[in-house]
Design goal:
Helices cover 74% and strands 0% of the residues. It is mainly alpha-helical and 204 residues long.
Amino acid sequence: LENLQPEIKKLAERLRYEVSVRGKQLGWSEKVARFHFKKNLRRIVTELYVRDNCHPFRATLLVWVQIPMWVCVSLALRNCSVGATDSEVQEEFSAGGTLWFTDLTAPDSTWILPVSLGLVNLLIVEIFASQKTQVSRFQKLATNFFRVVSVIMIPVAATVPSSMALYWLSSSFMGLSHNLLLRSPTFRRLCCIPKTKSDSDTPY
């Protein structure tokens, strides 16, 4: 998508000129000319997405799978922790922890899991924010929203069973690992990911 932007810009300028010429020939108003420009630009951009197989919607597909799965696993862990499914499972959870969180049915009284969760989520947000060179007003608002959510998740994680907080932390840590890995120039070359303008030889 990033590599397509210069081509889209060039084609948009050419289209603007062609619409302007055609508009003068047919006596179009500015509103009609703008309509034809936007309509044809959408068609051209869609064709480019199909050609390079990179429609923006594809980037969101994983989210539509990941969010319901995250919610379902969280609810399942809560039910197991409070004994809503089986008292034997709850007993196993109460003795199945490790290190400082030996009881997975109780909240983490040390706040290590919740604070770690908040820090990892904030790191993910900052990694995304650092990748953007030109940031729109909406992107700024979205970034600040996710920063606030990351902080709010700390007290929330401190009130739920440790099993849930541990799952949330593990999930976020995997997300952070993926983000860091995908910034590695060596890994990107290995996976034949095209080089973009925002790529850095020293991403870390």
